[in-house]
Amino acid sequence: MKIATYNINGINGRLQVLLRWLAEAQPDIVCLQELKAPQDKFPKKALLDAGYNAVWHGQKMWNGVAILAKGKELQEVRNTLPGDDQDDHSRYIEAIVDRMLICCLYLPNGNPAPGPKFEYKLAWLKRLKKHAKYLLSEEVPVVLAGDYNVIPTERDVYKPERWESNALYFPQARKAYKELVDQGWTDSIRHLYPQETVYTFWDYLRNAYGRNAGLRLDHLLLSPQIAGRLIGAGVDTHVRGWEKSSDHAPAWIELLENEN
Do you know which PROSITE patterns this protein is assigned to (predicted)? Predict the structure, then answer.
């Protein structure tokens, strides 16, 4: 089973890129972020025609998250991150798929930092840690996937010294991410490739993709009940080079099928 996360950076403007990748990669489950589309403008029919059912939480102009499942039913559980009734950003959605809880998230960027946007990011991370701890207490298979907008370590960024003033790399954000993982989650890609250079994002500026001057921002965390099924992981970096592609590339994992 292949599960992927992909910040599409505008689902309608990049629909052909998404459909091309789905046809090529054939993922079973996909978490999408940054739909940049209101709820009624989600391309449900095009995805159904491609074989994918979906649940989504849209928002006009920015944010927006979705979960796709190829030939499988999805049961939406929630479409907001608990802990702040005033937060109206579309950044989180959960669904049950094939006896797994799939959680798709789009964590705030936090720039410019320091400032209110960074404080919002830290507050969101605090809420995420609390909810993730609750999910672990349920002792069920959980995949916590998405664009975390956090560079976990210096190994996850090209020339880390250039990012020290960026919210993606601020010590507080990296500390919060580590605390999240240390609850008992497995960072899939880093677990399988502890020393390798792995990036999932390349800026549109300064030929970043051509120079492989990237960042690892997109993570798939696994609960202990599913981590033992992890047999593969990777990033479809070539997709970033397609015409009109997102500045992210799809990151994915492969799991052994559940025999129960």
Answer: AP_NUCLEASE_F1_1, AP_NUCLEASE_F1_3, AP_NUCLEASE_F1_4
Would you say 16 and 40 are in contact if contact means Cβ atoms under 8 Å apart?
Answer: no
* Alpha carbon distance, N-terminus to C-terminus of the chain: 15
Residue 215 CA to residue 200 CA, distance in Å, equals 6
pLDDT, one tens digit per residue, over 219-244 is: 999 999 999 999 999 999 999 999 99
Residue 236, CA distances (Å) to 10, 27, 91, 210, 224 in order:
18, 12, 23, 15, 26
Task: Tell me whether residue 52 is in a domain.
Answer: yes
pTM of the model: 0.97
Q: Residue 243 falls within a domain, yes or no?
A: yes
| Alpha-carbon gap, residue 23 to 63, rounded angstroms | 25
* Domain containing residue 187: 2-255
In a domain, 260, yes or no: no
- Other CB atoms within 10 A of residue 72 CB: 12
DSSP-derived secondary structure for 231-250:
EEEEE-GGGGGSTT--SB--
Q: pLDDT-derived band of residue 260, with 50, 70 and 90 as boundaries?
A: low
What CATH number should be reported for the domain holding residue 78?
A: 3.60.10.10
CA 136 to chain centre: 19
- Residue 236: exposed, middle, or buried by beta-carbon count in 10 A (0-12, 13-18, 19+)? middle
Cα 172–chain centre separation: 20
The number of domains in the chain is 1
